[in-house]
Specification:
This protein is mainly β. It contains three helices and 55 strands.
């Protein structure tokens, strides 16, 4: 359905003057950062432009600002952001340069994949903090320069994870006790010093070089703490949580003092703890009923497989009464592998197999290998482990918050997932990649990947194809993002008017851009091909191949139809520029290929109605303009887009 936008300015045209009047539906203008901010510059300087303001200006009240290029810097002294809102887009960063106890305030939005970086010494960030997905707090490059964030994490934020990387000499502290963040703090390395603003977090993951020091009493009977081998938990406050895991070992339900923990088998983990501080485990790790949990105790080499008793904690081959867990031995990335046998086919002997903490399953031989209950937590990897074409069947449950990876490893490896796939709503992405050897051309990339076959699958997140091939008929209600050297091949008609289909162009080599082998009828809500949003309606394979030759494979069907149901909404254009060319008034605005635009006029804003002046104007992505004659004693004009 087309969405109508009435722009913010009405222009009154007289015989002797041009008056720009603010209409009743005024909107804030949106400006974009023009270049990367160099050392010594900051956010309140002239870095901001838009379609009608091409000369960079300083930010001002009533307007919003977006960084989608380079980095944004705070002033070195306390100087609040002058605009109403600042958005940091994915892969962009905000560097906190203010120092010496100074503070700055900003209403800040951090989008998934963006970064906040330290640069000053102990400056305070205030205001509001909102956004979505996973953002990174990076304290890597500077020493003794802390984060202190007093911003309010607003109630409608959809952050799932704060990913902390850096140096333990730099503290990361959240001080606002009204914060509502309920996701996970993943301390890969560096130091989370805690603060009053962590109270509703659901968990803490401490990597092998990470440090957690909560700094204040922490009571959350729903939260979990998992410390990898080599990680550090400085207990100098009273802490109450649901469960604690140290190096793969689960603490029993009890209250422990710092002295007891330092003297116990995990002593090095709690170095620096206060002897009198307490750690209370309320629920503890609850194993599944009807059996015992058996953990994997080492990486399975190529000479072994999941039937080898030597790699399970009970020293026995998997049995149907037990539940089996590969928790990666506490390694934060590139974890232990569980291997299917090299030859034959069959079923995993246990009641279930669970991968967590970045563990992976190396899928060998042809199979099919059946896993009755296969649980893969966020960060887990399903890897094509051999040159054959193996298959996994059974039930695959994706759990946690974030992404699960399908890793084609190297060219020539394809794996079929016939498993029934279910997923927590917080699993946002299934990422297809080639983690060992990157393809050098499109032909290689199409030889590695995964085939998804169960049409009852319920994953409704995003299939992200970074490298290699994703094909099949089991995509249910998911959306699709195809990036460099990624390929998508539907094996059945696909109909989901809430899905998005995005195929990205390779900025350096268009011949190696994301691509689709289009030989089925596909219906989606919106489609964006190499940066262009397709119009609502039907698009044939022949038209798509001609318009986007590097996005649709030559083997695509000419008669297959891609139907776009709702499309992307026509974006607002913000300001309208007005000028006189000696004969006519000329109005300019930033247009969109999605829109159809009309110039409308009237002689009086109280009486009468708006009428079209001239014909409809088809939108383009970029600057647009239209002329209007100067007639009568006074006229008012507006531009609408739909």
């Amino acid at each position: 359905m087309k969405q109508s936008q009435t722009w913010k300015h009405i222009l009154r045209i007289g015989a002797w003057s041009t008056v720009l009047a603010i209409g009743l539906t005024a909107q804030a203008a949106e400006f974009y950062q023009s270049v990367d901010m160099a050392i010594g510059t900051h956010w309140n300087e002239a870095f901001w432009t838009n379609a009608t303001q091409t000369t960079a200006i300083v930010p001002s009240a009533d307007n919003t600002y977006v960084n989608d290029v380079g980095g944004t810097r705070t002033p070195t002294t306390g100087e609040d952001f002058l605009g109403d809102l600042l958005t940091i887009k994915s892969e962009r960063q905000l560097q906190l340069k203010h120092a010496g106890g100074s503070s700055v305030s900003v209403n800040l939005v951090m989008e998934n994949g963006s970064t906040m970086k330290n640069g000053g010494s102990t400056g305070l960030l205030e205001g509001t903090l909102n956004g979505s997905g996973i953002i990174t707090l990076d304290t890597t490059t500077e020493l003794n320069r802390d984060f202190i964030i007093g911003s309010l994490l607003e109630s409608d934020n959809t952050f799932s994870e704060f990913n902390i990387i850096g140096n333990a000499a730099n503290e990361v502290t959240f001080t606002n006790s009204a914060n509502t963040f309920t996701g996970v703090w993943n301390i890969q390395n560096g130091l989370l010093y805690g603060g009053e603003g962590l109270g509703q977090a659901s968990g803490f993951i401490i990597g092998s070089t990470g440090v957690l020091n909560l700094d204040v009493d922490f009571v959350n009977s729903n939260a979990t703490i998992a410390v990898s081998s080599g990680g550090s938990f400085v207990l100098d406050q009273d802490v109450t949580v649901s469960s604690v895991t140290v190096g793969g070992t689960h603490l029993e339900v009890d209250t422990y003092t710092g002295a007891e923990l330092k003297a116990g088998p995990y002593g090095s983990t709690f170095d620096g703890s206060d002897d009198a501080a307490t750690l209370t485990v309320v629920t503890g790790y609850v194993p599944p009923p009807l059996g015992i949990t058996v953990t994997q105790i080492d990486d399975m080499p190529s000479t072994s497989d999941w039937n080898d008793p030597a790699y399970w904690s009970n020293g026995e081959a998997p049995a149907s009464t037990n539940y089996y867990v590969n928790d990666n031995g506490g390694v934060s990335t590139n974890g232990w592998g569980t291997r299917t046998p090299k030859t034959g086919s069959g079923s995993f002997g246990g009641a279930s197999l669970t991968l967590t903490n970045h563990a992976k399953l190396n899928i060998k031989s042809n199979g099919p290998w059946n896993i009755a209950e296969f649980n893969a937590w966020e960060g887990s990897i399903l890897s094509s482990g051999g040159p054959a074409t193996p298959e996994i069947t059974g039930e695959l449950n994706l759990k946690g918050t974030g992404s699960v990876y399908l890793d084609g490893q190297i060219p020539g490896r394809m794996t079929t997932l016939s498993s029934l796939i279910t997923a927590d709503t917080t699993i946002t992405n299934i990422i297809v990649r080639m983690g060992q050897t990157a393809p050098t051309n499109t032909a290689e990339a199409m030889t590695a990947g995964f085939v998804i076959t169960d049409e009852l699958n319920t994953f409704d997140g995003v299939w992200v194809v970074e490298e290699g091939l994703l094909k099949g008929s089991g995509f249910d209600s998911g959306s699709f993002l195809i990036t460099d050297m990624g390929f998508l091949d539907f094996d059945a008609d696909y109909d989901n008017d809430s899905a998005d289909l995005t195929i990205e162009a390779n900025p350096t080599n268009t011949a190696q851009s994301g691509m689709i082998l289009f030989d089925q009828n596909v219906t989606v809500g919106s489609a964006t091909i190499h940066g262009t949003s397709l119009a609502v309606g039907e698009h044939t394979g022949a038209t798509l191949k001609a318009s986007y030759p590097n996005a649709f494979d030559d083997a695509s069907s000419d008669t297959a139809i891609l139907t776009v149901v709702t499309g992307n909404p026509v974006p607002p254009i913000g300001d309208i520029a007005g000028g006189f060319d000696g004969t006519n008034m000329v109005f300019g605005w930033q247009g969109s290929q999605l829109g159809t635009y009309y110039l409308q006029g009237r002689e009086d804003l109280v009486y009468g109605s708006w009428t079209n002046v001239g014909d409809a104007i088809e939108g383009v992505n970029g600057p647009m303009s239209v002329e209007a004659p100067v007639v009568g004693p006074a006229n008012f004009y507006r531009i609408i887009g739909e």
